[in-house]
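Just wondering, does anyone understand these tokens?
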Amino acid sequence: MNRPDIDDKGIFRPEPRDSGPTRRRPPRFYDGTADVSEATYEIGFDRDGNYTADAESACCKRVDRGQGKVAYYVKFSTAGHDVGHMMNPMGLYFRPDRVAVSEAKTGRARYMFKQVPETAFRDYLQFLHSKNERYLRSAERQVLDA
């Protein structure tokens, strides 16, 4: 891993700060209308498994809803030859420049986030880091078994 604040399971572990009752959280897909201490925040990961604050380039995300409730999401294909499968950004047919064209033709998003179990999320994140499709297949199987 190239980020010291993300552990080997892909979970964000911020260092504690002495900033009072409300700590500043990492950048998130958050509009800024709610109190930071109560807000739901998301941590996205790009095609290399690195942290990203851009919702469009995120392949998967971890959503912390507070009070220990955490949800994991991975992008799934909604159209094309790989419909129903997890997004494979290293795949032969993945072309990020064609996603907008596909969305304009069909009228729906090419990839959509779907909630997955934590183990599937960890395997998918391992796939993004290692580029080994064995982890992608394992994550897909875990979603089917759940």
Notes: Residues 118-130 form the longest helix (13 residues).
